[in-house]
Design goal:
The complex is a heterodimer. Chain A has two domains: 118 residues; 123 residues, no CATH class. Chain A contains seven helices and nine strands; from the N terminus they run αααβαβββαβααββββ. Chain A is of the alpha+beta class. In chain A, strand 1, helix 4 and strand 2 form a beta-alpha-beta unit. In chain A, helix 1 runs parallel beside helix 4 and helix 2 packs antiparallel against helix 3. Chain B is of the alpha/beta class. Chain B has a single domain, classed as Fe-S hydro-lyase, tartrate dehydratase beta-type, catalytic domain (fumarase). Helices cover 32% and strands 25% of the residues of chain B. Chain B has eight helices and nine strands. A five-stranded mixed beta barrel of chain B has the order 2-3-6-7-9. In chain B, helix 5 links the parallel strand 6 and strand 7. The model of chain B has no long low-confidence stretch (mean pLDDT 91). Classes of the chains: A alpha+beta, B alpha/beta. At the A-B interface, helix 3, strand 4 and helix 5 of A face helix 6, helix 7 and helix 8 of B.
Chain lengths: 321, 226
């Protein structure tokens, strides 16, 4: 039985880790970009970010004052038992959000969309969002929090099968260029691309691809993996770097997720995670112990399954858990 | 680590910024502020400029540096405020108030995010003898937070709320910031956008157009939102 109180304290700790400590995979990706960057302004911005992340960790203060829209991704083992059930779990996450907003502090960004009512705790109607997934043969729960700004750097478009890979590349470029000017996309960033599904699923998958996969992770389909590499390289050839200054630092990594879609369409979404890509994950084990990490390991073979029934496969994918 | 960034000029700017100091600034210079700055954004502008409410503090005597920011401040048991991370908000939305705000406040330096248009600089900033500094990366919240040494006072807190209130901050080594708009009305972002324009012609080469257009789609890729 996973104790309710443990869920809340873990989620509070996750909020602090996400806001303060840049994930190591992302940091390594940005460091590698600086070495390749020939634009002096773009290189300067990236160096300032490195210094900023060091200051954040040393001072234990958030790396960015726009602490985004804090939210959760929860993966529940099929055998996991939670004290108080799912309703208690949801309440623990809402309590943790409110407490962390005051204690860290996070900016109370969440307001009513029309009346701009602010509870000063990042909790409200449908806030924080909680996305759910499940995992067979497991008795743990994984909780990931993501802090991401929300105004720019994301777009959606209905493409058609005949538009092909060219259409995908064009829309990808359109989005990066439109939002990249003056750095509104907060680039460089991990870029997530959702292809297929229904319109809403397409948006959700692209966001998850950006926020829940680490730098260097490749899709298990080799052709999708090749397109990920190609789009990463294409984005860095636009000529735009950090803050929209001349340079090559646009895409730290590109992750694509695909979903079966309507036979007549090929919807596509593009999401830029922040230059301060903020995520943290914890696994709560059945014995009440907790382990923290920065790889959400969200996209398991089970989550990407293609068949009617699930039968476990040999572990080949990099994102297996 | 030797990188391409080594060639930029770095300068300290003391507040209140003097006309001579401002005249030295060129677009692309890296700036660190020392002294006193204050926050002010749409809430303050609406109240002071549109509603004509007298300023709650003698701004010209306090500072001439206006920061477009909502600090992540939380109230402490002793009644003071703790400032965690600090990041600017996008400034282009405030251009319409700048002309009258400069006259009212005596501001000579605007610190914000992403700059305003070169036209705004030439119409509003140049006549007022003012420059625009942009925060870097969007943002270096921890570094800027570290640069805030003390909250000296806060005004219009009840009327406007934490995010929109006018915060007077004592700062040291507050940066890095980049000069986007200089006294001549040049814009760093516009210079960089122009360079990008030359490359855009080639990046789309060989890619077929989609079958259907898109409502609201921009037809000129040189367009920008700001």
């Amino acid at each position: 039985m996973i104790p309710r109180e443990r869920i809340e304290t873990t989620a509070r700790e996750l909020m602090a880790r996400a806001a303060i400590d840049i994930p190591e995979d992302y940091l390594a990706g940005v460091r590698a970009m600086i070495d390749r960057e020939k634009g002096e302004l773009s290189a300067f911005v990236l160096e300032a970010m490195l210094e900023n992340w060091r200051a954040a960790s040393t001072d234990r203060r958030p790396m960015c004052a726009d602490t985004g829209l804090p939210r959760y991704y929860v993966k529940i083992g099929n055998e996991a038992r939670i004290e108080g059930g799912m309703v208690a779990l949801e309440e623990a996450l809402r309590r943790a959000t409110a407490a962390a907003t005051h204690d860290i502090p996070l900016r109370p960004n969440r307001v009513h969309p029309l009346w701009r009512t602010d509870h000063d705790n990042n909790v409200g109607i449908f806030a924080p969002e909680i996305d759910w997934s499940f995992e067979p043969g497991a008795d743990w729960i994984d909780i990931t929090t993501v802090h991401k700004g929300g105004l720019f750097g994301t777009d959606w478009r209905m493409l058609f099968p005949g538009d092909g890979i060219d259409g995908i590349k064009r829309f990808y470029l359109d989005t990066l260029i439109a939002f990249g000017r003056r750095g509104l996309a907060c680039q460089p960033a991990i870029v997530g691309v959702g292809i297929g599904g229904s319109k809403d699923a397409c948006m959700v998958l692209g966001k998850q691809a950006a926020c829940l996969r680490i730098v260097g992770d490749r899709h298990p389909d080799p052709k999708v993996a090749a397109l990920e590499r190609e789009l990463t390289e294409l984005g860095n050839r636009i000529g735009m770097g950090a803050m929209g200054f001349s340079g090559s630092s646009m895409v730290v990594d590109c992750h694509i997720e695909v979903a079966y879609t309507h036979t007549g369409g090929m919807p596509m979404s593009v999401h830029c995670f922040c230059l301060s890509s903020r995520r943290a994950t914890a696994r709560l084990h059945a014995d009440g112990s907790v382990t923290f990490r920065t790889d959400p390991a969200w996209f398991t073979p089970y989550l990407r399954r293609e068949t009617v029934a699930w039968s476990p496969q040999p572990e080949t994918s990099a994102s297996s858990v | 680590m030797v990188t391409a960034a080594g060639n930029l000029r770095q300068l300290r700017l003391k507040t209140p910024a003097s006309p001579a100091d401002l005249a030295r600034l060129r677009i692309g210079d890296v700036i660190y502020l020392h002294g006193v700055i204050y926050t002010g954004r749409e809430g303050v502008y609406r109240r002071a400029v549109e509603e004509g409410v007298p300023l709650p503090v003698d701004l010209p005597a306090v500072s001439n540096v206006n920061f477009h920011c909502s600090p992540a401040a939380s109230r402490q048991p002793d009644g003071g405020y703790r400032v965690g991370a600090v990041t600017a908000t996008a400034s282009f939305r405030f251009a319409k108030w700048m002309e009258r705000w400069f006259a009212l406040s005596g501001a000579k330096v605007i610190v914000g995010k992403g700059g305003m248009s070169g036209e705004d600089y030439r119409r509003f900033f140049r006549p007022a003898g003012a420059v625009y500094l942009t925060t870097v990366g969007y943002g270096t919240g921890a570094l800027l937070g570290r640069g805030v040494k003390r909250v000296r006072s806060v005004h219009w807190l009840e009327e406007l709320g934490i995010a929109q209130a006018l915060w007077v901050l004592e700062v040291e080594n507050f940066g890095p910031l980049l000069v986007d708009g200089d006294l001549a009305g040049n814009s760093l972002f516009e210079r960089e956008n122009a360079k990008l324009g030359e490359r855009l012609r080639t990046i789309y080469e060989g890619l077929r157009e989609p079958a259907l257009g898109r409502y609201g789609e921009t037809t000129d890729r040189g367009d920008e939102m700001v």
